[in-house]
Automatic annotation (TrEMBL):
Pfam families: HAD_2 (PF13419)
Catalytic activity, EC: 3.1.3.18
Pathway the protein acts in: Organic acid metabolism; glycolate biosynthesis; glycolate from 2-phosphoglycolate: step 1/1
Family classification: Belongs to the HAD-like hydrolase superfamily. CbbY/CbbZ/Gph/YieH family.
NCBIfam families (UniProt xref): HAD-SF-IA-v1 (TIGR01549)
Protein name, per record: phosphoglycolate phosphatase
GO CC annotation terms, alphabetical: cytosol
Transmembrane domains' residue ranges: none
UniProt organism field: Profundibacter amoris
Molecular function via GO: phosphoglycolate phosphatase activity
Catalytic activity: 2-phosphoglycolate + H2O = glycolate + phosphate
Length: 221
């Protein structure tokens, strides 16, 4: 069965606003201002909570960087979980593109490095969770992307075949995951790094979700 597996942050939805707001809430609670910028630091937001905390503490010039990140990480998770969909938006055409795949008897799933509970909550709030046959998060298995195991497990849980699957993502992590799993990758160009993702040499680029079906059909023909 043909299968399409999606990354979540930066691929299906722009979650950067809520991620950055949660990181800034940590710094504000510590008596600092907002250390991250909503526009300029989008790429760091898509790298995850620890990456944002690291950037903020680096800007503060702290010496015990990793310890401070560890101290604040669960606080960050709490802030983020409380306001997980305030700024987040699904990318234009994503819902329709996923529905077209389903109508053509594709299997679809989500493989993300967001903690599973948060990913489940967000997809429910966005009204899209029921569209996907499987969701694997960063803590579902003992390993996470770019290890191929989460991807393979997502395909299997969705009822698909790895040999006839493709990964849709937006970062080098997704590219490396697809390469490790031996499947093609499609990287979106509407994230914060734009068409620079072409330098990662994916099998295809996606400029808009209107084009997804044709791109996937070409790769899995």
């Amino acid at each position: 069965m043909k299968t399409v597996i999606f990354d979540l942050d930066g691929t299906l939805a722009d979650t950067s606003g809520d991620l950055i707001a949660a990181a800034n809430a940590c710094f504000e609670a510590l008596g600092h201002g907002a250390m991250l910028d909503m526009a300029a630091d989008q790429a760091t937001a898509f790298a995850g909570g620890r990456a944002m905390l690291r950037l903020g503490f680096e800007r503060l010039g702290v010496s015990d960087l990793e310890a401070r990140i560890d101290e604040q990480f669960q606080t960050f998770i709490g802030y983020y979980g409380a306001s997980i969909d305030r700024h987040t938006r699904v990318y234009d055409g994503a819902v329709q593109a996923v529905q077209r795949l389903l109508d053509a008897d594709y299997r679809v799933g989500i493989c993300t490095n967001k903690p599973e509970g948060l990913a489940e909550e967000l997809m429910q709030r966005l009204g899209m969770r029921d569209m996907f046959g499987a969701l694997i998060g960063a803590d579902t298995l003992p390993v996470r992307k770019p290890d191929p195991a989460p991807y393979v497990e997502t395909v299997h849980r969705a009822g698909g075949n790895v040999a006839r699957s493709v990964l849709i993502g937006d970062t080098v992590t997704d590219r490396e995951t697809a390469r490790a799993a031996g499947v093609p990758s499609v990287l979106v160009t509407f994230g914060p790094t734009g068409r620079d993702v072409a330098g990662l040499q994916p099998e295809a680029l996606l400029d808009h979700y209107d084009d997804l079906f044709g791109v996937v059909e070409g790769l899995l023909a």
